[in-house]
Amino acid sequence: MPQSQMRRIKLQSLVLTCVHLLQTSAWAQVSIEYSGDFEWDEQTATLTFQTSGTMPDSKEGFFWRVPARVKRIVIDANVQVRGGFRVLYREKANPLHIVGKDRKSSVIFGTDEDAWTDRNGVSENEKWKYSSVSVIEDAVVHVLNVTCLNPRGYIISGYANDAVIHVDSCSLLDTRDGNNNNSDGFAGAGGSSVTNSLISTADDGIKVYSDITIENTTIEHHRNGAPLQFGWGGKNETVSAQIKGLVIKGVDRENRYNMAPITWERGNDSVRNVSIDGLEVEIKGEVYNEEEMAWRPIGLFELKPSDCEFNLTAVNVKLNGLPMGLRKTKGTVDISEALK
């Protein structure tokens, strides 16, 4: 749209400039750049993405730093937002809600490029900040009824001490080729939850690094990554996981996997206490044993750190003939399989 045709609307403290190629909304020295249509509701503090579009296609500009005054982000049906949301500090009484109108078609999209973080020089401990939704500082965030597809980095993550994230009725997907996209599915601070969701990515599905609740969720197991990853390091940590109604499905075409469905890769002097009511694992094939440098029959576990403790009580379990697998970690494992 030529500049002469631009519309400038002033609503209280909100200044809205509409352009065919770029729309910039600014209030109280905070702005968003997005090429599609959106609407700001001052009374409800809701920003609604109405048509598909993109954030600026730069390394950092692609991620909108959501102002604390925004209480709700809505993505309409049949809308694909190319970009990501970075959440900064918010008071607990001011949670952020990111909501889709239609789970399948309300999409937060990242990139078609594989291994984006490596190609763009992102260090290993910074890759989570390039998520579809990354909670950079302490905040409570609810993500509901959206699809997060092919993120530049992780999918939904928060590594701040109080980055509490609740994911409900979402699809966290990486459909690109390759095993080096670093698109780990979910990580949040203690008190986070994942419910009624699907996670399908060629990296770790859910990182159980802090207290978490998982309910009615399916995780697809690809060649790379573990559906439940209990640690790549850390020490002196005690974590509890409450799980109800979890399905893990192996989907590698060659039935070969780098990790087991439940894996604890590394750690020191730490404890994981896990309670499961309802687990079904549908997987067959082989897992790669790094010490032996050979493929071995896959089992439920790869619990590697010998100076850590893993305690599991699980009922209503269907393993479909899957053996226990590798257990070097101390602790008690009590599994009651469901009657056929």
From TrEMBL:
Keywords attached to this entry: Glycosidase, Hydrolase, Signal
Signal peptide: 1-28
InterPro entries linked: Pectin_lyas_fold (IPR012334), Pectin_lyase_fold/virulence (IPR011050)
Protein EC: 3.2.1.11
Keyword field contains Signal: yes
GO molecular function, one term: dextranase activity
The protein's name: Dextranase
